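Repro:
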Amino acid sequence: MMDVMRFWLNMGCDGFRVDMADSLVKDDDDRKSCTCSLWKKVRAMLDKEYPEAAMVSEWSNPELSLNDAGFHMDFYLDHAGNGYNRLFRDYETLEKYHVFPIAEDRKNTEGRDRSYFRKDGDSDATAFLSDYIPKYEKTKDAGYICFMTCNHDTPRPARTLDETELKIAYATIFTLPGVPFIYYGDEIGMKYIENLPTKEGGYTRTGSRTPMQWDGGAVNMGFSAASKDKLYLPVDENGPSVTGQQNDKNSLYNVVKEILAIRGKEKELCADASFEVLCSGKDKPFVYKRGSLVIMVNPGEKDIEYTADYPAIENGDYEEVYSIGRIERSGSKIVLKAQSFAMIRLK
């Protein structure tokens, strides 16, 4: 297998996404000791022969994948009730959506979608942080926990989030530590297509695997000039497209480009730059600090206040780097209007 990897790395491949990385050795122990031992040998080979190459694991257990197995990155997967799930897809913890057993303390007994990024979710960042922060603290010196907009196994976020909700969600995960991943089409808000016939074992996942929608005025949305019956899956002819959003400065597509451009320019938003949670909780915004940058998030329908313990904010001695929605300042208090995101630089 290492020779196969060498072949592709010599062809110019930058690295590998490793599917089901924790299942390499069957009947392994709970710590995946044998699996981790083999991956460490692969990592040693990469470090010696291809030091610029990287591996990201489909594991979602960073303590094992990063600390023990030697992966550079680990996907924060959509597991029912975990921190990532509570941000985007809390509806999956509702009983009617249960596919796999869910721990009692993670079950949703309220009967509604409490996802943090839903404007009517009426939740806060606490459930996310209680899962994420311990994992981050234990692994931040070994590698990166990777937030993703979606993947081929997960319903697209546009299934339940509208455009403004998506903007705030992406702005948040693109400014957190680690390496963010965008699943193709999420940058334009491609929809999850319900009730598609399963294809190659896709089952309910099939609806997130439809062709990319490039051009709303072209055949098959610009994906292919082939006849429709030749396509792998049908194109969503009524969905968004790249060409339909390119010239709209307020489109989801351009918001994603703007935030990623800021991330690329600001060293304090790098994968391993410092991270400190300043505020979270019921009826409070989610506020975190990355170097001199302070990021404030209010995805809800109500205005909320943040009392900042920084003289620079109280004196208005800061620079607004980026915002979605509106924020207002009154002394040491900042009011985040409904559905808002703001990034400021303390001077």
